[in-house]
Amino acid sequence: MTHYIYLVRHGEHQDAEHGVDDGPLSPRGRRQAELIADRLSGLALDAIWHSPLLRAAETARAIAERLPAVPAQPSALLFDCVPTGMTEDTPAVFEPFFGSVTEAEIEAGRAQMGDAVSEFLVRKPGDAHEVLITHNFVISWFVREVIEAPDWRWMTLNQAHCGLTVIAQKQGRPWSLVAHNDLGHLPFELRTGMPDLLPV
Ligand SMILES: O=C(O)[C@@H](CO)OP(=O)(O)O
Predict the structure, then answer these.
(1) How far apart are CA 48 and CA 64, in angstroms?
(2) Domain of life, per the record (predicted)?
(3) Which residues of the chain have pLDDT under 70?
(4) Beta-ladder partners of 128
(5) Within 6 Å (CB) of ligand 1, which residues are found?
(6) For residue 20, what pLDDT is reported?
(7) Which of 5, 23, 21, 24 is nearest to 62 (CA)?
(8) Phi and psi for 60 in degrees, rounded to 5?
(9) pTM of the full predicted structure?
(10) What is the pLDDT, as a whole number, of residue 23?
(11) pLDDT for the residue numbered 199
(12) CA-closest candidate to residue 137, choices 5, 6, 4, 9
């Protein structure tokens, strides 16, 4: 009996490269969403949860269209956020990142991630398969939580648009990381959203 959670970053959104905060998926983002939807379509899903932002909602819709019995539901716990601020053990190289982030945003992010972990990383009875469509930092936080890395380590994890990360808990065992940022369903030209191109 295993509880699987499939963590998916939303597809690329329109004008993301011009710094636009949210919006509909770009043509490339729609293609990414269709391909992750194809990849997940053979699963007996119990739930599809998504961030309320449009790029995540549209990605979730592509998945839900292939699985009409499973409604896609918004969850504010999956909203984009900054999970922690600069702490004593955070390497100084990350300091510039926090220049434009307020204390209030960090407090809100910390509280949201605490609630998200309490809500989603709980054992469901029997076999369970849930998809969470969310944002880069949120997935980084879930992965960090599962591998029990120091808090600041979320900053060293990145996921591509519609990359697939899988975490799982077998009955009586701790959560484990099954796959991270698997891009096998995406052709090279659709592997967007990483800070650097993969060297291979
Ligand atoms: O802005 C970003 O880089 C990330 C942060 O989580 O968000 P998104 O996945 O929405 O692009």
Answers:
(1) 7
(2) Bacteria
(3) none
(4) 3
(5) 9, 80, 135-137
(6) 75
(7) 24
(8) -65, -40
(9) 0.96
(10) 87
(11) 82
(12) 9
Ligand 1 centroid to residue 47 C-alpha, Å: 23
Environment class of 165 (CB within 10 Å of its CB; exposed 0-12, middle 13-18, buried 19+)? buried
How far apart (Å, rounded) are the C-alpha atoms in residues 90 and 154? 11
The letter for the amino acid at 162 is C
Q: Give the model confidence (pLDDT) of 73-111 as tens digits.
A: 999 999 999 999 999 999 999 999 999 899 999 999 999
Residue nearest to atom 9 of ligand 1 (CA): 135
- Quote the tokens at residue 117: 């972990």
For tokens 């930092």, name the residue.
137
Q: For tokens 């926090």, what's the residue?
A: 98
**CA dihedral (81, 83, 86, 92) positive or negative:** negative
Q: Per this entry, what is the length of the chain?
A: 200
Residue 186, amino acid = L
